[in-house]
Amino acid sequence: xxxxxxxxxxxxxxxxxxxxxxxxxxxxxxxxxxxxxAGNIRALVQTAREILPLPGSFADxxxxxxxxxxxxxxxxxxxxHAAWQPLVEEVNRLFVEVEASMRKELPDVDFEPVPPxxxxxxxxxxxxxxxxxxxxxxxxTNPKTKPAAKDKPRKAEKHEEPARxxxxxxxQTPEExxxxxxDKPEGAPAAEPEDGDSSAAASxxxxxxxxLARLMAGAFDxxxxxxxxxxxxxxxxxxxxxxxxxxxxAERKKESDPIPQPIDLGxxxxxxxxxxxxxxxxxxxxxxxxxEGNANTSLTVSFAAAVGSTxxxxxxxxxLSGQTTSNDLSGKAxxxxxxxxxxxxxxxxxxxxxxxxxxxYFTQTWQxxxxxxxxxxxxxxxxxxxxxxxxxxxxxxxxAIVVLSSRLIIEPLSLVTFTTRGNTTVVHLKKGGVHYxxxxxxxxxxxxxxxxxxxxxxTVEAANEGPVEFIVRRKEESATVYVIAGTVSIGRSxxxxxxxAAGKQxxxxxxxxxxxxxxxxxxxxxxxIPVTAVQIEVPTVAPGSYTPTYRQGRFGDGWxxxxxxxxxxxxxxxxxxxxxxxxxxNEFWYWxxxxxxxxxxxTGDFDLAGExxxxxxxxxxxxxxxxxxxxxxxxxxxxxQMARDSFAAQYCILGxxxxxxxxxxxxxxxxxxxxxxxxxxxxxVKLLLTRRGDLWRTYWSTDxxxxxxxxxxxxxxxDSLWVGWLFKRHAFDGSNSEPAVNTLSAVxxxxxxxxxxxxxxxxxxxxxxxxxxxxxxVTLSVDRDKPGEVxxxxxxxVDGDFEIxxxxxxxxxxxxxxxxxxxxxxxxxxxxxxxxxIRLRQADETGLRIDTDLRKNGGWGRYRWVEAKGYExxxxxxxxGATLTTYYRSGGAWLRLDEFDAGFASPVFxxxxxxxxxxxxxxxxxxxxxxxxxxxAQGLAQPSASTPRRxxxxxxxxxxxxxxxx
Length: 966
Known about the structure:
Layout lengths: L9 H17 L5 H15 L8 H21 L8 H22 L92 H6 L9 E6 L4 E3 L14 E10 L13 E8 L2 E11 L9 E3 L2 E10 L2 E2 L3 E6 L7 E8 L3 E8 L2 E3 L12 E13 L1 E3 L5 E2 L4 E3 L5 E4 L3 E4 L4 E7 L2 E15 L3 H4 L3 E5 L4 E5 L5 E7 L4 E7 L1 E6 L5 E4 L2 E5 L3 E4 L9 E2 L2 E2 L13 E3 L2 E3 L2 E3 L3 E3 L6 E6 L2 E6 L5 E2 L2 E2 L3 E7 L1 E11 L6 E8 L5 H4 L12 E11 L2 E3 L18 E8 L2 E7 L6 E7 L5 E10 L10 E13 L9 E4 L3 E6 L2 E6 L6 E6 L7 E8 L10 E9 L6 E9 L3 E9 L8 E4 L4 E9 L2 E8 L2 E4 L12 E7 L10 E12 L29
Parallel strand pairs: 20-21
Antiparallel strand pairs: 1-15, 1-17, 2-14, 2-16, 3-13, 4-11, 5-10, 5-13, 6-12, 7-8, 7-9, 7-11, 16-19, 17-18, 18-20, 19-20, 20-23, 21-22, 22-25, 23-24, 24-27, 25-26, 27-28, 29-30, 31-48, 32-33, 34-39, 35-36, 36-48, 37-38, 39-47, 40-44, 40-48, 41-42, 41-47, 42-43, 44-45, 45-46, 49-52, 50-51, ...
């Protein structure tokens, strides 16, 4: 932020980076609640860059962080989470640095020092004493809790601006923590606890704050209305002023004056949908000076929606800007769900054909504010959303599945609310119907019971252990209970409870019993899957190997087959061989989610391997590729594949398969355009998907010896999820009668705890040649008849600083017109935006040269080169922080080639490559040898002598343990 720059120093910046690094480490925790709090503290720490030397703003910032740490202390996580105390200590050091800088710049301002954040004990507390129950007591009743106070909007406090020296681009600090938990009315709930964290739930406070149910599937167009607006610590939960600020922009009159910069503020976490009033005034109005336009200081408000545990990219909600006299502006911004608000203030500016090298800037003082006028407790229902006491769920055109002590399907056009009765969750049916399903294991997993209140004085609940299934549907003045399995008990305000067994329906309020036969075909579906078959949870899978079987028309051994259209044909002509025939109309993209899939749950790291032959008379299109399904994570939406509010947004296509599309029959070559990639063979191909933490990779091989990297990405996904194959067929060329025939065999899923499975020492792309690694030597070659790129990259990812030094040698290139040859080392972030290289290249238009370039945020344009004198030499690439530099050796000394003084801090993969295709009009053979002289990076093991020809979990090498049906 420009106004804060002169009050910052290297010590403050260093402390910020250390705090962010420590919080980021904690964010990797498997505990979802701990991960959330660490992310919140990291975001608050980063706002230090917005802190100005104003005692009030510094104190507000300190209090916001203190509140988050207070929540951490209440959580009482076990002793293994000892990383919190170093973070506390580093945050306190940051306070000291910021306070010292402020006192230095404002010696005449008297303010009290902020107290340090109290330590966080990492010793687990002793277990609470068990309640004493006398022999006569039948139950222990919890003391009644005080009902929560009504959540009234808090009146915005008047903001008093302390006196301060005027200066360029001075801006007042936002009021951090508005609407934080300490500012709520008495009785407002504490932060929402996470499922599975009993200690956090116990410390979160009253029964009213505990999660009673969680939405896990369906619910398109459904709405959740909260009884009280709740959010993460520090989130805004009430109406009131969020930010007000003022500052001054100055005209740039000479070259030495700084260029006026926009001021970015936020994010401000909002816990619900709502609207805000925004005001901006610039004084004096800018003059009419430039011919094309003259604008006052402008302000934009943007919003990033919370989807799952992450956020969308920010989109603009409101822009306040005006020409000349339009200097007093206001407007309203609104958003439809929880998320984050961002504010940008931009300098007053003009434009003209001949504006001059200094730009068209004006001098102007500005004042601005953003005040939330209303927050809406109703929000679009999202999978994974918690339902608390008093919350309401209303469905529209789709059913919804919630998890309580069982699976509860809320039918379309229904309205339910949730309360408690002792240790029972009561679902109040206000409109429509609900379908209750309890499997054998559900009761043992969750002790809380479930009862359905029909709204006419009756409660319906399971009357026996084991499987129970029933439906309750309500009309205007009556209700009907249909019992499918087990026995239910219908409690009445008068008289004894009614017991209704399977095969009966009970009409209420009369209690008349009639025969009932349930037809599963009448059940609702979610994206074509019956509501009783939708996978809403992921079972924990023990380390081991799992192979599918197919008996009596069903996959077994933990594998599930999802076929929404029910039109795919599956056969098993031999043990371990599956023939899957998929007709036209099975697409899987955006709103379409009809294609069938074969899935198995996994926990931790894994290798999924198999052999595939994809046959189809059409190449437009039939596709088989890897797929994961993680309920509540919205991975498919964040990958840009599926619509945000669709149930299919929980699926994510990883690729790495066989594609017959755009008239081509192809496999995938990493870093290669689809059309220029490898042609698929006429025989089966071995495919492999691996996960190592957040690193996902896919490979293919035609012989089981030479493996090709096809995709590589960093994807933060839940530890447990479903993984398998997706089979698509969509006839874009009119060949509707031609199915896609998949022959899948040798399927093996090998799982292990995180960090327990070895990864490949090298990843190779060698479909158009060969890659061989022996010790520190990497030999690459390209076939004459297959122009392209061959590469070998170290299998481990580099997350921080690194240095790599490589000697290269190639036979002299006898250049012919139309040929192109290059050899290079690279740092690849694998995100299609960040990449750096230094290479030796020979082409018609360049001759023989050494060149380098950097792609940052998707943009090139930092190209540098020198003439080369031969085909042997040494390259060096170095990263310190976010700065990347490249060197070549000449005359015994290292010479820096680049001049971009820039880079990126993204995790990267380091490697070497040769290329004969870029810019070439004729093919040519190419070979080069690279010797790694130095490779240093934190946490990176030196490249081993392992050859890339074999991977640790190919179908041939993985030991397969049979898990046959018993």
